[in-house]
Design a protein that fits this description.
32% strand, 2 domains, Murine Class I Major Histocompatibility Complex, H2-DB, Chain A, domain 1, Immunoglobulin-like, 8-stranded antiparallel β-sheet, 6 helices
């Protein structure tokens, strides 16, 4: 397989001088996506992630490694990076050849997509976890059992996965090498990257939150009002958002709904949490946000500080928009008539 080979140059580093453990759990992950259009046409995209930071990417056409962080080139010499690019270029041909051979032997039709994720996770207690997972067309295919040193089919009824598992398990030497790469080489490189990326990994961005209510249903409809708490701009990723009713946290249930944590374009995150409340219930509500950037404090946004949507407010906003549009039209027509009254050669006073 290709991606284990990408780790081989890391063995060149001096593994004797092991960097200190990171203060929090962090993961080094390599991702590869291949689109097999047919037996002779394949597109590939590769990237490396330290935690949620994209550190390296791989250009499909030239196999050139791109460094996406200021410190991403640290850890290896320029000569080692060049040798790594050459190794990737050679390994790509081998990987594509093997996948096409398996596809043809198993009668797999084109096009299809393979997705591979491998790397290691290092928690603060000093233990480590290596992983290698592969999927085809978004469905789990095979994975590597680090403890047993064997490949495992993720779907026992998938004939192609069983065939691939048996084929890979015949190469005992490759399995032993992969165990070493994930347990030793990957962990040491992860520790080294953490040293260079310490400032980026410890970045703290405070969340910004707002509470609003979606427009209620038409009058007479017995439907709950939906309160929405939008939290955005925070980093790192872990965050906790809860709703308070009369000062007490609302427990999990059908009233609550969350979008999950989603990425922003500026490398921060966002989340939306909604709470369904009965109309005219007479309770007070607030959204509470807990995040590491707040220094142990909580961000509390009461719903009482905002005005719910009501018929009067909706009508007022509508009339205001209509009035502004009418004034704009009158001014535009007046200026247009003024310019039409100027004869050629005359200047406007």
């Amino acid at each position: 397989m290709l991606l284990p080979l990408l780790l081989l140059p890391w063995v060149w580093g001096a593994l004797a001088a092991s960097p200190p453990l990171p203060p929090a759990s962090v993961t080094l992950r390599l991702l590869q996506i291949d689109v097999f259009h047919n037996a002779s046409s394949t597109d590939m995209q590769g990237m490396a992630l330290l935690g949620d930071l994209e550190t390296h990417s791989l250009d499909c056409s030239t196999c050139e490694i791109r460094f996406l962080q200021p410190w991403a080139q640290q850890g290896l010499t320029p000569k080692q990076w060049q040798d790594l690019e050459l190794l990737i270029h050679r390994s790509l041909f081998s990987f594509i050849f093997k996948v096409n051979r398996i596809a043809q032997q198993q009668g797999k039709g084109y096009p299809f997509v393979t997705q591979v994720s491998l790397g290691c996770e290092l928690p603060p207690n000093g233990s480590s976890r290596g992983f290698y997972e592969a999927a085809v067309n978004g469905e789990d295919f095979i994975s590597f059992d680090m403890d047993g040193g064997k490949w495992v089919a993720r779907q026992e009824d998938n004939v192609a996965a069983l065939y691939t598992r048996d084929l890979l398990n015949r190469d005992k030497g490759a399995s032993i090498t992969l165990q070493f790469l994930l347990r030793t080489t990957c962990v040491n490189q992860l520790k080294s990257f953490v040293l260079y990326a310490n400032e980026s990994l410890e970045r703290q961005e405070r969340p910004v939150a707002v509470v609003f209510a979606r427009a209620p249903p038409p009058a007479g409809t017995p439907a709950p009002v939906l309160l929405v708490c939008r939290v955005t701009g925070f980093y790192p990723r872990p965050v906790r958002v809860a709703w308070l009713q009369d000062g007490e946290e609302v427990g999990p249930g059908g009233r609550l709904n969350s979008s999950g944590i989603l990425p922003n374009a500026d490398l921060t995150y966002q989340l939306r949490s909604s709470l369904a409340v009965g109309p005219g219930a007479g309770h007070s509500y607030a959204c509470r946000v807990q995040h590491s950037s707040l220094g142990g404090r909580s961000l509390l946004i009461p719903w009482e500080q905002s005005r719910p949507w009501g018929p009067g407010l909706v009508m007022g906003i509508t009339l205001g928009v209509v009035a502004v549009a009418a004034v704009a039209v009158v001014l535009w027509q007046s200026r247009r008539r003024g310019y039409q009254d100027i004869r050629p050669g005359e200047s406007r006073p």
